[in-house]
Amino acid sequence: MKPTFVYLAQNTRKDPQWGRDSRSMLEISLDKLYENYNHKFRQSIIIFHEGDFTLEDQRELSKGRPEITFHEIEFKIPDFLDKSKVPDVWVSSAGKAYGEWGLGHRHMCRFYTIQIFDLLSELGYDWVCRFDDDSILHSPIEYDLFEYMESHNLEYGYRVDSQEPYRLTEGFSEALHNYIEKFAVNPTFFDEHVWTPSLKNTLCNYYHQLLALRWPLKKNNLRIAGTYDNWGYFNNFFISKMAFWKSDPVQHFLHFFDQMGASHILHWNDLILQSAAVQIFMDKKKVHKFEDWTYEHATIRHGKLEYGGIWRGKQDEQADAVKAFEQQYGRAIFDADKTY
Description:
This protein has helices at residues 22-41, 55-62, 103-122, 145-151, 172-182, 199-212, 242-245, 248-259, 270-281, 320-329, and strands at residues 3-8, 44-49, 68-72, 89-91, 100-102, 127-130, 135-137, 156-158, 161-163, 231-233, 238-241, 287-289, 295-301, 304-311. It is of the alpha/beta class and 340 residues long. The protein has 2 domains: 3-183 and 232-329, Spore Coat Polysaccharide Biosynthesis Protein SpsA, Chain A (Alpha-Beta Complex); 195-228, no CATH class. Helix 3 packs across helix 9 (270-281).
């Protein structure tokens, strides 16, 4: 087994998408990962970047921890896309108030949808675990994460469930159904993630249709039979076996959507594409939700929590970090009526 943790990082005190101090957050994330896990297991950590970490920066971040290496990559719009169709800033059809996403963000989406698996395969790794610069491990993990996955015959692990807002995924449900029909795919548990409206849903649909006469965005609340429900895995942390992502069916799926401009033109992000791939091609028994340790991934802007939060581990009795976070910012937020 050759596993690695991965980060995609920027060496900036104010990143263009969120205005965050990415450099300081990366230092905190790495320190907590070592404090609560990697001081014991000493597993590889690769920090992918666009050349903005000098050798001195790399020495400062590594702090004598030889497991940390840096790998420079170059982001660009794929040659197979019509660049005239790739906006500098992608804006939801609902308007700017519901999200503006620059090229950097969409490069990141494509990186974690398809490129990461090609890069790690070329480097010889067979397991991957993702952390973001704002992913923080708050409680000790006393077992080897990768060995746990391997020994339990698991292929995809995550920490938090998530639902993407519909106005950020326009057309995605239809595209998934078309793909499944066109290529005669027999999904494993994708059908569990399509709407089968109940009587309550039907009554709510009538209500939202009436509201939509005055407020058109209320149409986003409709529960349409057969529509993908956008529930998936908050993949700022995920751990997975490379063999699944490099298998022929999954590669065909990923490249098919990549050729459509999923990330750059349509803004179908890595969360929904990765989640759909798992739900279509992976045996559900091989998917595992970790709940024993405390994890934080929060989008904080102007001192307020906008999305995400902190999740207490069932084995974390003290959870001081949870108390401190919730006192300052409140509980985790996943509001599908908002986009960020």
